[in-house]
């Protein structure tokens, strides 16, 4: 579905012109354009309080610095702010080229992310195994909820990707699922682990049909929403005796972390996760810990000289 069909109340005409430019001329993905729209709307609303009666393209650098300081005070990370700044720089450059301002006050401006990236919340392999064991499969409803856990952890899907899965996205011959609209509207193919594949076959046989949502509500047959997915994960985690909050995102992080722990190449994990590049996947490098040291310790230096 296009960005235009998702439009909420319009922004300033200059902003709408920029968004159309991104979509039609720059050929940006609809998801990217939606992100830029959200940034422009959100910052405009904040600036209405900080600098009333002045549009974004009439603000000074000092105005933006005040906005950044406010965002820092509420805990916004530098990486997130830099993404917003990138959106704003693009828009201000468009405003400058359109003759609406005499300069782009954010040109070349970037903040230093002084916060170290924290390790993503994930489960240990033992906890993940206990989570799966704690999913009953006596009724059709229980089997559906068990499939939620298996697909989140076994395929590393995002919550929205899981909600959007359709019956026709499952290729039982190739043993894989097609994620049609991942983050940034990028498609990807995710292979199914043996256990997930076996249980998915049984679920599909019971589910019946050839089209429609893979996971649907019991009463109306509509696609499950993110709220239901989160409730299932929380309920199963409590049943498994995991005494901390467990979210669908934690299962996705666990998928990547456990693959890396097993020595899977970073580029492969990046592709499976739907990242643009292995650099995005670097957040999972924490699992390596002592692996480099163990590797060099395994070298047999007694057999010859190192030059």
How does this structure look, described?
The chain is mainly alpha-helical and 307 residues long. It folds into two domains: 4-97; 125-289, Orthogonal Bundle (hpI Integrase, Chain A), CATH 1.10.443.10. The protein is built from twelve helices and three strands, in the order H-H-H-H-H-H-H-E-E-E-H-H-H-H-H. Strands 1-2-3 form a three-stranded antiparallel beta sheet. The radius of gyration is 24 Å and the shape is elongated. 27% of the residues are buried.
Summarize the structure.
50% of the residues lie in helices and 3% in strands.
Spell out the blueprint of helices and strands.
Layout: H1 13-24, H2 30-50, H3 61-73, H4 78-97, H5 125-133, H6 140-155, H7 159-164, E1 170-171, E2 176-179, E3 188-191, H8 194-207, H9 226-239, H10 248-261, H11 266-273, H12 291-297
Antiparallel strand pairs: 1-2, 2-3
Helix pairs in contact: 1-2, 6-8, 6-10
- Tell me the radius of gyration: 24 Å
Q: Approximately how much helix is present in the residues?
A: 40-55%
| Number of domain modules | 2
Strand content: under 5%
What is the level-2 CATH architecture name of the largest domain?
Answer: Orthogonal Bundle
Uncertain segments are: 292-296, 300-307
CATH topology of the largest domain: hpI Integrase, Chain A
* CATH class membership of the largest domain: Mainly Alpha
**What structural class results from the helix and strand content?**
mainly alpha
Shape: elongated
Spell out the CATH superfamily of the largest domain: Intergrase catalytic core
- Compressed to H and E, one letter per element, the order equals HHHHHHHEEEHHHHH
């Amino acid at each position: 579905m296009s960005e235009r069909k998702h439009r909420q109340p319009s922004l300033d005409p200059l902003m709408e012109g920029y968004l159309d430019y991104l979509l039609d001329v720059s050929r940006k993905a609809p998801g990217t354009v939606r992100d830029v729209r959200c940034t422009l709307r959100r910052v405009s609303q904040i600036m209405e309080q900080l600098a009333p009666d002045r549009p974004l393209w009439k603000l000074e650098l000092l105005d933006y610095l005040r906005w950044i300081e406010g965002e820092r005070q509420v805990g916004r990370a530098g990486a997130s702010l830099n993404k917003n700044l990138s959106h704003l720089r693009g828009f201000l450059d468009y405003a400058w080229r359109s003759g609406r301002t005499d300069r782009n006050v954010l040109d070349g401006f970037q903040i230093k992310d002084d916060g170290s990236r924290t390790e993503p919340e994930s489960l240990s392999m033992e906890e993940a195994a206990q989570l799966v064991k704690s999913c009953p499969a006596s009724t059709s409803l229980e089997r559906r909820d068990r499939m939620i856990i298996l697909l989140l952890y076994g395929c590393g899907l995002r919550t929205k990707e899981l909600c959007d899965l359709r019956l026709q996205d499952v290729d039982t011959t190739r043993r894989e699922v097609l994620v049609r609209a991942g983050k940034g509207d990028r498609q990807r193919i995710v292979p199914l682990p043996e256990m997930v594949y076996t249980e998915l076959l049984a679920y599909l046989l019971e589910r019946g049909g050839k089209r429609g949502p893979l996971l649907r509500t019991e009463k109306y047959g509509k696609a499950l929403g993110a709220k239901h997915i989160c409730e299932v994960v929380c309920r199963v985690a409590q049943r498994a005796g995991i005494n901390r909050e467990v979210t669908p995102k934690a299962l996705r992080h666990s998928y990547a972390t456990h693959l890396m722990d097993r020595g899977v190449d970073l580029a492969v994990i990046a592709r499976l996760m739907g990242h643009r590049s292995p650099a995005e996947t670097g957040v999972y490098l924490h699992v390596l810990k002592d692996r480099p040291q163990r590797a060099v310790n395994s070298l047999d230096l007694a057999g010859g000289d190192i030059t």
